[in-house]
Amino acid sequence: MNLKIKRIFKFLLIFIFILILLFNKPKNEWFYSSYILIYPIWIDLISNITNFLKLNIGDLLYLISFPIFFKYLYKSKTRRDFLSRTAFTSIFIYSFFYLSWGIHYNKKSINEEYAFGDYQINELVETTDYYIRKVNNIHETLSVNPNQKVTLTSSFEEIVFECKKSIKELKTINISTENLKVNKSYFSLLISYLGFNGYINPFTLEANINSRLPKISYPSTISHEIAHQIGYASENEANYIGIISNQISKNVEINYSGNLVALQHLLRELYLNNKILYNNKIEKINKGVLKNIDEKAEFRKKYKNKLEPFVKKAYDLYLKKNNQSYGIKSYGLVVNLLIYDYQSKIKLSSSPSI
């Protein structure tokens, strides 16, 4: 690359970087609404490339980018050259991250869209009761014995197909879900120890799933990551979209997985509010359902280590930096959305017909 082209590239990079700093702000609805018109075209283009190459491009990119980056810095001739290369590399990564996917952090939240407030404890109890009945009923269709846990029979590819199909039915944004790429992560062992179920690569827009997870967690995790792909950056909203898409799936195994996750979130919230009520609700759950919940807990216990809290703290800071004020606690805020969703259905069904 000759000197003139380098200068043009650097000028354009700085110009884009400044535009991002000026316009990429929370609540900038004009900027986000303009971006969302382009994003379906962008993700379709990137997905066509990554699907054609078959391999997990994002994970391979992570593996090779660090040596390339350090080699690039090592070739610096002077201290000034080193600082310049570091600055422009950082600006390039930052700009690409936000233009490719990170701007979704500025999307208007579902909470703001529907303008609902905090829940009442009786609403939490009602919603938990509803999900206990629902999960028990689905469990009984999948297992003859109420004391036996559900074991999914579908393959990873079949689950991905069903999750894509059910999310498409939500008609959230104009994106072809069939083309979205969902991989088993090459770093599944590592992210098991770090405490993550999956992640989206913001540069290649691939969803990556921890293949070591209990299979019962596959549908909810896959749908969560697909929700990120279609533009829900907020963790509680990705949880919510993943859960409700599983709920409308015609595949009973997918349906069970999504409702089970919803119940787990509600039970955790109930435990924090009233341990007596929590213990009372646990007694009403099929033993087989509790075994599925224990199966997930055992997985977490198996990979728990001293490094995980530090990683979670770093991720917490990352989320807060990207307009999620609750940080890593935002995963649990899906409870508010689940309660609102259930209470809305109650009000709708109790409304007098005209």
State the gist of this model:
By secondary structure, the chain is mainly α.
Taken as a percent bin, the fraction of beta residues is: under 5%
Mean pLDDT, as a whole number? 86
State the secondary-structure class.
mainly alpha
Radius of gyration: 22 Å
State the helix count: 15
Tell me the helix content.
Answer: 55-70%
Order of helices and strands: HHHHHHHEHEEHHHHHHH
How many domains, in number, for the residues?
2
Termini gap:
72 Å
**Low-pLDDT runs:** none
What overall form do the CA principal axes indicate? elongated
Instruction: Count the beta strands.
Output: 3
Largest sheet: 3 strands, mixed
Strand order of the largest sheet: 1-3-2
SSE diagram, text form:
Layout: H1 3-23, H2 29-53, H3 57-74, H4 79-100, H5 110-114, H6 121-142, H7 156-170, E1 182-184, H8 188-194, E2 198-200, E3 207-209, H9 218-229, H10 235-247, H11 252-273, H12 275-282, H13 287-303, H14 308-321, H15 334-350
Parallel strand pairs: 1-3
Antiparallel strand pairs: 2-3
Helix pairs in contact: 1-4, 3-4, 6-11, 6-15, 7-9, 7-10, 9-10, 10-11, 10-15, 11-12
Overview of this protein structure:
This protein folds into two domains: 3-106, no CATH class; 110-350, no CATH class. The N and C termini lie far apart (72 Å). A hairpin with a 6-residue loop joins strand 2 (198-200) and strand 3. Helix 6 runs antiparallel to helix 11 (252-273) and helix 6 packs across helix 15. The protein has helices spanning 3-23, 29-53, 57-74, 79-100, 110-114, 121-142, 156-170, 188-194, 218-229, 235-247, 252-273, 275-282, 287-303, 308-321, 334-350; strands at residues 182-184, 198-200, 207-209. The mean pLDDT is 86. With 354 residues, it is an all-alpha fold. The protein has 15 helices and three strands. A three-stranded mixed β-sheet has the order 1-3-2, covered by helices on one side. The longest helix has 25 residues, at 29-53.
